[in-house]
Amino acid sequence: MSAHPADMLHRIQDAHCLLDRTFTIVRVNAAAERLLGRSRAELIGRLHWDAFPASLGAPVGRALRRAGTGVEHHLTHHGTGERDILHLDAYPTAGGGVALFWRDDVGPVQAARRQDEQRYRALFNGMDEAFAVVEVIADAAGQWTDFVFLEVNAAFQRHTGLPDPVGRTATDLLGTPNPRWAALYGQAIDTGEAVRVEETEATLGRTFSLNIFPLGERTTRQVAVLFTDVTEQTRAAAHLRESEERQVFLLALSDRLRSRTEPASLQGAVAELTLAQFGADHCLFCEVRGQQAVIQGEARRPDVPSVTGMYALTSVPDLWGTLEAGQPVIVGDIGAAPWLDEGFRTWCRSVRIASFLVIPEVHAGQVMGLFGVAQRAPRPWTEADVALAAEVAERTRVAAERACARQALEASERRLQALIEQLPGGAVFVVDQDLRYLLAHGEALTAAGFTPEQLVGRTVAQILPPEQAGETEARYRVALAGQGFEHEHAAHGRTFLTRGAPLRDASGRVTGALALSYDITDRQQAEEAVRLLNATLEERIEDRTRRLADLNSELRALVTRTARNLEAPVQALSRLLEPAPGDAPLLEVTPWAPAALQDELLKLRGVTQDLQVLARLEERDLIRELLPLTELFRDLQAALATRGVRWFTSRLPIVRADRALLRQALSVLQTFLLSPARGVRAVDVGSQEVQGEVWVTVDDDGVGLSGEEAATLFDLTVRSEQEVPLLEGSGLTQVRRIMARHGGWAWAEARGRGGRVVLAFPKDVEVTALEAWLRNDPPGP
Question: Disulfide: which of 72, 460, 504, 630 matches 652 by Cβ 3.0-4.6 Å?
């Protein structure tokens, strides 16, 4: 039985390899495994060019491609040794593939060389550095423009990220490679010398450290490249360098901030320093005032225009919206930022700004200022740029606030010193633990015949007489023990009040004593004058009250008599309206219509009721107290608010009055104001002093009052003899009587539109002084 052809091929001494039409390895024999040093499992199923990339441009590769076209090819390849000979036969197969047979004659020298090559191959594929053999390509003018990869090791893809580069050019792999690669490889070929360089490939985003060696004669145009990806190391070194430069800049910035005390000059100095650090063309600070940006501190290159001035932030709403949100605005190229307003873009070009970075200075949620850096050329602002600009802005803001606080403190100290030196009617003293004067100033000191120079640096015992020094030292020791003191005394014909307190350092330790002495002579005299005035005022009030009581007594008699006189007619008229019994005779009366009789009856009953109210009002004793009118009108205001009436009130005085009666008067006044017939929508209450009285005016926008209506609005007689239309709420008579009982009066004023009621209170000197004291809130004695 004959052997199967495949078994025969497996046993033959010549190496055999079968490729299909795609040059995929489909079979190898044992001799091929031995000569290639690779197992059948490693080879079958792989493309020949992947398994043997070095054969792509070699004679073996050309023989395979020729056989793949249907032409058998025989090759005898001589190595460098005399007996290193490769015999290769390539036959086309019926399926379009290639059947390959080869053998080699290897002598001792060639065997050693083969072993060296295997060692080289192991080192080549096992090394950590990337290695490649490339053939450099020149154009027609002889310029090195591209290169093709002939051989690469396993580390090549790890360092570059490029798979299967063998047989492909750099342009095929990268599209637009760094042109320096071909130039550097060509330099090694032209000079015959190795080139060591560090270069970046932007397409890959990587930086490589390269050693380039020429291979063979110049005509081969081949170089070997040993290189390593040093991207991370380069970035780390750049970051370290930037960090060191940043620290140097920040130290210089701190020195600049410490050396400046004026906020305006501080910002200008920082802008100059930052301009140099960024290599920019503009650097500036803006103060935000509402919707305006005011550029103040500016540094710029001499050949660019200034941008100082005031600008409306509303003209750049998108930019301003970002800043209001507390976010920086970063524009690397104004031409590539379509969201920018065209007008703003035009302005940027006019001042030679092509890119800019703006940092908002936010305090308590509000943008208080802006810090900007700009350049005439497009610039890709980095995160480090933004972070540094933000730190500059923050440090400058803090330093400016500190400078402003320092200025305010110095100004305050100057004012305090001026106040102490010119303290009206008083003096300030500070002594240390040894009772030695450290400070002495004030008008009282001068009035006593002393100067600050006479006291400062000397002790109390050295300045004052012995009998006075002992008392003064005792009081100062109280303050030095941590307690305050107060002492009233007479000196030089005047009365003084001295208050003392301990002075403590930051740790709370008492270091000295402060004494403030001020002249209270005038105050005491004023208090005595007020006491005497109050005494006479009480007498005048009692006298006026007696006279008013006499008037009220007469009025009560009149009111009571009138009420009795009116009650009888009312009863008679009521009987006329009642149905009479059938057998009772009809009284002779004027034939009035029942409706008219009813109206008269209502009027008479109203007068009777008002008179009875007035009688009870006049019999009530007054209970006077200090009443803030604002408090009483507040109740009236609440009632008006429920009717949709708007209320406007100014500061109202304090009066001495009976709370219940005054509240009753305001309630009656409310009835008048809310009369539906008047249609009031707004009420305005104010006050003024007029000829010894305090007038409270109540103005409304309701139906106006004629002269007659205003004159009779508070009169009682109108109820029975009225020719003008009856106004609801004409019980305002009570308001006038209540005001009269308080020594005041009430009246109305005619107006074409709206009405005015005036409540006049007698001016109370004591109450007026109290109000002035409350408004000014003077310090206590």
Answer: 630
Tokens representing 107 are 């002598």
**CA dist 256 → 177, 265, 397, 492, 670 (Å):** 46, 10, 13, 56, 71
Say what percent of the chain tops pLDDT 70. Answer: 78
| Residue 548 in this model has a pLDDT that exceeds 80 | no
Whether this prediction's pTM lies above 0.90 is answered by: no
Contact residues for 154 (Cβ-Cβ < 8 A; gap 6+): 125, 126
CB 740 within 8 A of CB 624: no
In the three-class reduction of DSSP (H, G, I as helix; E, B as strand; rest coil), residue 283 is classed as strand
Number of H helices, E strands in the chain: 25, 28
Q: Are 776 and 659 in contact (CB under 8 A)?
A: no
Separation of alpha carbons 345 and 614, rounded Å: 83
Cβ 777 vs Cβ 666: under 8 Å: no
Which class for 524: exposed (0-12), middle (13-18), buried (19 or more C-beta within 10 A)?
Answer: middle
- SS percent in the chain: helix, strand, coil, step 5: 45, 25, 30
From 430-444, 580-594, 767-781, the region with the lowest mean pLDDT: 580-594
- Give the C-alpha separation, 627 to 647, whole Å: 20
Phi and psi at residue 325, to the nearest 5°: -80, 0
Structure tokens at 106: 């290897």
Q: How confident is the model at residue 400 (pLDDT cuts 50, 70, 90)?
A: confident
Contact (CB, 8 A) for 323 and 356: no
Which residues, 6 or more positions from 140, have their beta carbon under 8 angstroms from its beta carbon? none
Residues 6+ apart with CB under 8 A from 218: 189, 190, 192
Burial class (CB in 10 A: 0-12, 13-18, 19+), 693: middle
Rounded CA separation 353/305 (Å):
10
Distance CA 208, CA 191 (A): 22
β-bridge partners, 57: none
pLDDT digits (tens, 9 = 90+) for 468-496: 888 889 999 999 999 999 988 887 778 88
SS3 assignment, position 484: coil
What's the gap between Cα 349 and its chain centre? 30
Contacts within 8 Å (CB) and 24+ apart, 202-206: 202/178, 203/174, 203/175, 203/176, 203/177, 203/178, 204/160, 204/161, 204/162, 204/174, 205/231, 206/159, 206/160, 206/161, 206/231
136 confidence band (pLDDT: 50, 70, 90) = very high
Q: Are 626 and 767 in contact (CB under 8 A)?
A: yes
pLDDT for residue 719: 41
Tokens 């020719």: give the residue. 723
DSSP H or E run through 683: strand 682-690
